Amino acid sequence: MNVKLRVLSVGALFFIGNAVSAQKVKKDTAAKETQIEEVVMVGYGKQKKSDVSGSITTVKSDVLQDKPVASVELALQGKAPGVQVANTGGRSGNETKISIRGNGSLSASNNPLYIIDGVPQESLGNLSPEDISSMEILKDAASAAIYGSRASNGVVLVETKGGRYNGKPAVSFSTSYGIQEIIKRPRLLNAQQYKQVHDVARQNYLNDIAAGTAAPPANMATLTPMPNTGIDTDWMDFVLRTGSVTNNQVSFTAGGESSKMYFSAGHIGQEGIIRGDDFEISRVRLNVEQKFADNFKIGVNSYFTYSSAKPVADDNDTYQPYSNAMAAPPNLAPYAANGKINRFNYNNPLWGFERQVTDKWQTVGANFFAIYNPIKEITLKTSLSGNIASRRYNRFDAPNTRRGEREGQPWGYGAYLTANNRDYLIENTAAYDKGFFDNRLKVNVMVGQSFQRWDYEDSSVYGENFVSNDLPWLSAAGIVNKGDSNIYSMALYSFFGRAQVSWENKYHLMVSTRYDGSSKFRDGYRWGSFPAASLGWTVSNEEFFKVPFINEFKLRASYGLTGNQTGIPYSAGMQLISSGENQNQEPGMAVLTLNSETLKWEKGKSFDAGLDLSMFNKRVNLTVDYYNKTTSDLLYRLPIGQESGFSNRLSNIGTINNKGIEISVDTKIIRGEKFKWDFGANFSYNKNVVEKIGTKSGQFTTGFVSIVKEGEALGSFYLYDAVGIAQERYEYKDQAGNVTKVVQAGDMIYRDVNGDGKIDTNDRVVFNGGIAPMYGGLSTTFTYDKLDLSINAQYSIGKKIYAMYKQKQEAGAPTGYPSYSPNMVADQMNYWTPDNRDTNVPRPHMASAVAAWNNEQSTRFLENADYLRITDITIGYNFDKTNLKFIKSMRLYAQVRNPFTFTKYSGVDPEAYYYDRSLKVNQSFADTSKISSGVDTNGIPNVKVYSIGMNINF
């Protein structure tokens, strides 16, 4: 194929073996294309991209708007180098977690700071993708340090749409409908296979008793053969469903000579893949700006969000239907003869649907601002922002439900929780922007002041002994027996400034500093300074640079300090006294925490060096960055002597380092009259090392099988090293040659690390990979006339997952009559026998000692979870103009999300992410689950979504 390209300035290029010839562009065309300079957001302002000397990634608005997604975060998957986006599961309204350049905290937040229209937010949940005008991700300290004590994990800047002055009224409407299903259905044993494994486990035990290698059980009745019930239940059929998702939004923009506005209203409704799991969210946004004179204007950016969820039990809850459907025996029936939910020795998955829960949030926020230019070069801005979020949560376990029983009799339990979270922000900035020496020297100086305060208030009340199954409110409870209420506040006072200088568009310098004071710490430790500086050299603008096909070549370097106070308790540096009652219901007060008088926030030091290269009339764009980021004064609760009356103390203890490289390539491969082809790719490598944690042992375990250890990465596992399965009798011996343990053929062998002949905690080994060190994304778009096709993907390399659920569901039926073992995954059928030796699944066995040995927390359950996931495929058709004069454009499209995943991981989802939904995530509480990533607890997996949609502009 030989395709002519009008804008390349080289003779020939080769793309995937096909020669592509090129012809030079006309000078007047090139001039027109270079007249528009891209502008990007930076902290408290905007800047020409050519002048940027920090590491900033721009996410274009069309990436967020052309494809239906439930959240902004999902649209970022695989789109930006250095940015890891993990979907925490397939629950409706599910949360998505973002990490920028690794994780650098143990107990404070690892989440980035979100700035929406200049206002710090705790998430992007109040934002619709269709409302976004531009988005920038500030990754290095020089770009982010202007936000000081909250910027160690990077900053995401978002600007919403605002209309245009002298713009004609315009209306846009978008709608989509999709169906969603589980990304991969788990493979479980049917009733016949389930019985077979139990029969083999029983027989193996009997054989070992006869051979004298195993002691008989205390109760021989446990070896009673499993009966054939004639029942074969696929519990997933009773738990899973084909869900749906609808997304509708309408927006209106208008602008006159002195005013402009943007209004939008949208609604998303989701039916999750788990029966009864429903979520809906409605958003309204109004942005208005009014000029009173050429040099004075005021405005407001406001929003209202309402969400309502009817969630099923959480992933870490006893009655979670999905995990119980994995474990429920297939030879039992879901319903009893009387039609009621069946009772047996395992949690019936259907019990999870009995609890009635409604969880509703209402959030309203606004940013009022005024901008005054006393002279052209000076801009004064003042703004007042506020947010109020209120919650109403009602839970009811009806008297006739499993959880509503008391000692086997109908009883009933209920709870009602409320929350009222408020914050307000006052900011004032002054900026000076002027060119000197015929604009060869450009100077921009900005100084500002900020004050923000948070108040979190919550209350709860509980009741029991309900009169009816149909009255779920506490007014119907016979006993209202428990209640609680709390309020806590915190504030942050800041001063900041930045100076930017550019000479002849060649040499760029930026210096900034922020001085933050937090109420969370004691006097003497509550103030911190966060300076930063960056340099840029646009080599392509030098006289000596004579490379015709290079449009821009810029080198960058930066260094700066940032902090982390998000997620640190509101009174971290102070000793608290708690009040309440003792067991005799007598009121009293007691010291609640042991304070550390020298406690301070975490501080990050970051160096970045990079280059930006644009070639062939900006047809090929390359960005490369190297960074080295160290977070010190890590906050963690260290164990202390019990004689103090406390078990731990929050302390500044250690250091974590993240270093890596990022590469991003964006190409416009073909630009024909009708046919166009774009391709983009990004790659990131992050090496995370815990350098110091302050404990004598240099390590501590954290949740399940995870460990934090000096010299290792966060997301590491602490496991026995499973060597394989003994093919014949195997003996462990101590250093004197004495036999200390005998392993029979078909059972596991673990590495005796210290050679003492015993397998104990001293033989556990650290394995990395819970957080993938390499990751990135791929994207390509084909356009022919009015038809377009886009394909996007993300990948992860070096990722490991500990399949913790297999400890019970690939355990070889260790439990006999009358309970028997939970159901197992299909891999269990590959168990070891004398005729099936090439396997890593040991022989089934009902002896508790043998089963416990074979199912130790080991590398047997640690799997390679590298993956390439096609995140979305979208095909669309654009009607530029229609016969209906009032329709300016219309687009129809069809999309499938997560259609294909290529991985060796045997579980359902290699993106498995444990997330404790009981955690409060705000300025005072942190989600620390990122440091124990890579553990598959059998949570609800991700979904495939098949959607059709339409966008219309009037």
Task: Summarize the entry for a quick read.
By secondary structure, this protein is mostly beta strands. The protein is 7% helix and 48% strand.
Keywords, separated by commas or semicolons:
single chain; 954 residues; mainly beta; 5-stranded mixed β-sheet; globular; disordered N terminus; transmembrane; signal; transport
Describe the structure.
It is a multi-pass membrane protein. The chain has a 22-stranded antiparallel barrel. A 5-stranded mixed β-sheet has the order 5-10-11-8-9. Strands 36-37-38-43 form a 4-stranded antiparallel β-sheet, with no helix packed on it. By secondary structure, it is mostly beta strands. It is globular, with a radius of gyration of 31 Å. The model is unreliable at 1-35 (pLDDT under 50). It has a domain at 191-231 and 722-762 and 812-854.
Beta-strand portion reads: over 45%
Radius of gyration: 31 Å
Q: Which blocks of ≥5 consecutive residues have pLDDT under 50?
A: 1-35
Q: Mean pLDDT score, rounded?
A: 89
Biggest sheet features: 22 strands, antiparallel, barrel
Counted beta strands: 50
User: What's the helical proportion of residues?
Assistant: under 10%
The shape is globular
DSSP helix count? Answer: 9
Intertermini distance: 40 Å
Could you say which structural class the secondary elements and strand pairing correspond to? mainly beta
